[in-house]
Design a protein that fits this description.
mainly alpha; 0% strand; globular
Amino acid sequence: MTLNSPIRIVGTLLLALAAACVCAWLRTPLPWIIGPLVATALASIRGVQTQSWNPLRNAAQWTIGAALGLYFTQQVAGLLVSLWWVIGLAIVWALGLGWAFGAWMYRRESARLPGSEHRKRATCYFAGSIGGASEMTLLAEREGARTDLVAASHSLRLLMVTIVVPFAFTFSGLHGVDPAPMGPRVVHWGGLALLALATGAGSWLMARTGRPNPWFLGALLVSMGLTTAGVELSALPQWMTNAAQLVIGVSLGVRFESRFVHTAPRWLLSVLLGTAGMIALSAGFAALLAWGTGVHPATMILGTSPGGITEMAITAKVLQLGVPMVTALQVCRLVAVLVLVGPLFRWRYGRGANGPA
């Protein structure tokens, strides 16, 4: 951390807080994440030296994971087990949709990409895969892909989905249809301290064992296990979840550096068009799942949308749109994509030189 880093971090947080307050005053959807995300992204693109701080981001991920786990009561757990086939179909859909997006990107952009055929395939494939940005960029690097284009694709996709989907739901009037409220609803400070200790230990263990997204998934699994077992320690204060959303919005916004808009403009346009298509196709797929299960369509849309797990789960929580189902679908998809997307690429396209061609 450089000498100027604390000043940049504090300045970025103040900008994000101001944007969140403005959005809350304007009654925009998800003001505590969308306001900071948009304001930080615009400032970063304009060349302002914004900065996120990893320990704060980890704490925010922990907070959201612990809060979401409180929705997994015994009744909800039984419902999710009965809908295992829906989760399986959603995983297959995510893998197929990501492959199709990557194939479309290859047909549209390969002639303009430098390097070997394998490098072009890897760049387009991992840019289209519906997974975490950092994880997909790491997998792409191992296959010698253009990591700058892969990272830009995932950043732009997350930005677009995080903004478009909540606004669409809010203006369509879809909210408050969650049949499964969370377990504990009252804040007990002693219980909250125990919950923090338990979920913090789970996150630390996940991080020590090298698991993906450890601070979110570790806290989620421990909180979910306690709630399912009937142990209700405490709810989380609203200000904690608001602050966590703000920090997550900042961590997404700082990815958009000033050079972002100069990174292959045609490539970014293709990502925009492809993401719009994925949102529309996922909505249609979600409507079919909703028809077959009786689950509200809005819940299925969030669970199958090509957004990030944290952002979609936050949307479900704020708008009360089937939090457990959305979280379960997104978590299972994340794990499956991380495990399968690399082997599937090598099975389909083989191995290439490890590094730029």
